[in-house]
């Protein structure tokens, strides 16, 4: 029988002090309270029995009960920075079913910010269609383009148009991944290291996480390095190789560290240590973004059997990478224990779609 993952039903009360602020008290960086507190770190007994290795889940599907996932951590810092700069409008970018764009629409609306999104096509699926409708349901204004190469020009034109209307726009990059957005996952790295210590968890052989736009991996590496927890990060690529590589990740790592060090000079400059923590797994991308492979489908089937809901774009491929690590080991070493960072929101989409309009024909080209 499947073991359903628990969803948070407690009222959401943002934490008053982050681990970053408690350990480096001089830090004074803008933040809005979205993540209520530490997300659970749980050993999953069903998946442990099924795989023969200890499978632990870092439950970042529970970052917020209204809409969870990894994007929420990044938006704490990005929306805080936007509000601190006096913005009234957000411009961001993503694919047709982007969890980042949806999260930005949800939490931008909650903080009184209009949200505009430049969207690129994505392979059609029920999940993508629901995400797109939920964006519309949350009031986001969507601007379709045919190719990712068209995004910079479309964003610049939209930025100019909004300024001419007297708006004060703030641009958030794809996935919320820059030095500011990565701060949310610096916090998550500190949190994970503390939980492993408090729960007396034996050190895992690897931490497995999706590599999309890069901010989650970069921030996690900085947070773990700052905590002195040097567990290897296995970053499973789910986006095109040309979009995010080691140089781009290093820029995000350095950007996050410089922001932290500038605010509190006691924060260590650890970009070398952090960049040595992760390796990029290129073996699960398959034919491209949003296109599942046979291993993706197998991972999703196994997840469903044990109450772990995975999607074909991010988490299915990431968990497939985790399963392959367990079967094949890494560098001649059999893996006995790993942490899988679950980044897909477990909150139901239906409440976000109530009252949403049908997808207009002008957006049809987004669903390929």
Which secondary structure elements does this structure contain, and how are they paired or packed?
Elements: H1 19-23, E1 41-43, H2 45-51, E2 54-58, H3 71-84, E3 89-95, H4 99-110, E4 114-120, H5 126-137, E5 141-144, H6 151-164, E6 169-171, H7 183-198, E7 206-211, H8 215-227, E8 233-237, H9 246-263, H10 271-275, E9 278-281, H11 294-305, H12 315-328, E10 337-341, H13 350-353
Parallel strand pairs: 2-10, 3-4, 3-6, 4-5, 7-8, 7-10, 8-9
Antiparallel strand pairs: 1-2
Question: How would you describe the overall organization of this protein?
Answer:
Helix content is 40%, strand content 13%. By secondary structure, it is an alpha/beta fold. It folds into two domains: 19-70 and 178-341, 3-Layer(aba) Sandwich (Rossmann fold), CATH 3.40.50.1100; 72-176, Rossmann fold. Helix 3 (71-84) crosses helix 4, helix 3 crosses helix 7 (183-198) and helix 8 crosses helix 9. It is globular and about 60 Å long.
